[in-house]
């Protein structure tokens, strides 16, 4: 389109030259040289404008493609969320059956006193990962409320290892809280010399037949104890 416009303008200039007083090949040559000198800068500018226009068209095309990709991603995310919700609903329905509760109780969680616990003895995780793992299992890190509950682990834990529970001082360095209850921990039974304030998360350990609590770095990789309420 731009080239056609230039050709039209050049033709008009040449025609005006022919209509002037001078005639002959010398006059034609002078007119052509004059027209070229006038139009050459315009042609250069128009060429630059054309390249910019083409670049803009390419940018618009890329933007449209990106927008369509985002729409597809959004649609895919929505579908994934719907599928995840459906799967979660199915799991909840399955766990609501007596058979599912029986499998949970017998195959994963064991009863100690009036509560059900899962003691991880193979995989070591930091405190935050252990918290998430217990949630994925449908429970939470063990929330021990009495000396009797703590003593229930005297014969269950390997004395060489430590196990995360739900107590932490990450929110307030001067106060240990139970993340399960969202309030100050009502029961703390520290080992001798503990807490040493060398960490903000709490683990339990059995030593000489007695299970006690210790503060530890939350990033330490330890075993952990999950707790779950199971209806009979």
From TrEMBL:
Keywords: Signal. SMART domains: CLECT. Residues 112-227 form the C-type lectin domain. InterPro entries: C-type_lectin-like, C-type_lectin-like/link_sf, C-type_lectin/snaclec_domain, CTDL_fold. It holds the Pfam family Lectin_C. Residues 1-19 form the signal peptide. This is C-type lectin domain-containing protein.
